[in-house]
Structure formats: C-alpha cells, structure tokens
Specification:
Structural class: alpha/beta
Radius of gyration: 17 Å
Number of strands: 4
C-alpha cells in the first residue's frame, strides 16, 4: 500500500561498511520502505562510513550539513546500541539538533516517519507557536 505520509521528508542513511552482509540484505528494503511511505528517492541521502566507530561523526555531519529530517544508521542495533560511546554521541546529536535518529534496517522507516510526525505535531502545539488568547476584562 502506497502512502504519501513522508512526501515532504528528507532522510539521511548512514551505511556502515563493516556490516557488509547486513547492508546487502537491508539497504534496498530500507530505501524501498521509505519510498513506499512517499519519500522521493532524491530525498534519501546515503553515505557510507568504514566502521561502527564512525557513525557518530557521520550523523553529526548529516545534522549539520544537510537538511535531512532524520537519520537512519543502517546497522545491527546491538552493534551500535551496545556501545556506550556511540549511544552517548547519538543521544547528544538528537538533543543538540532536535533530530530523530534510528538504528537498524527497514523497520526503521515507519518508526522514523512516526517520530518526525510526532515531533512536528508537538512543535505546532508548543506555547510559542500558539496565538495568545485575548483576555476579556
């Protein structure tokens, strides 16, 4: 089933070369999943890094130098989430750049879209985005 929920979204994908077998099995399904949600191919920025150690700097570069709405690190979750320094770096990027970062494969497509939609909804509901109520005295 096609959807256009991600039609205005842009995604970064950080592919870790160290996980070649994982990448071969999951990169195409991940891109296909994003496209099925409505993301245009030209709005999917794929960058390759040599090792899991490099995901934090690549994610930082995506946040700082591109206009992506979120980043998916294509890697086995346990290999990234099990590394305290990587997770600390990723959390810091999420906080500093207010950017959604997912780790895994094609299942991340729906997760990241849902989180970006939630983030956008919450931003619109923020007090500074609401018009002040006229007070009647």
């Amino acid at each position: 089933m096609m959807s256009d929920v991600a039609s205005n979204m842009k995604f970064g994908v950080v592919v870790v070369r160290e996980f070649e077998e994982f990448n071969n099995a999951h990169l195409t399904p991940l891109v296909d999943s994003l496209q099925m949600l409505g993301c245009e191919m030209e709005n999917i920025v794929v960058k390759f890094v040599p090792t899991a150690h490099d995901v934090v700097i690549a994610t930082q570069f995506m946040a700082e130098y591109t206009d992506v709405d979120g980043v998916i690190i294509l890697a086995p979750q346990n290999r990234i989430m099990g590394t305290l320094s990587a997770m600390n770096g990723i959390v810091q990027i999420q906080i500093q750049w207010n950017m959604v970062v997912e780790i895994g494969a094609e299942e991340c497509a729906a997760h990241i879209v849902d989180m970006i939609l939630l983030q956008n909804e919450m931003e619109l509901e923020a007090p500074e985005n609401k018009s002040p109520r006229a007070s009647i005295s």
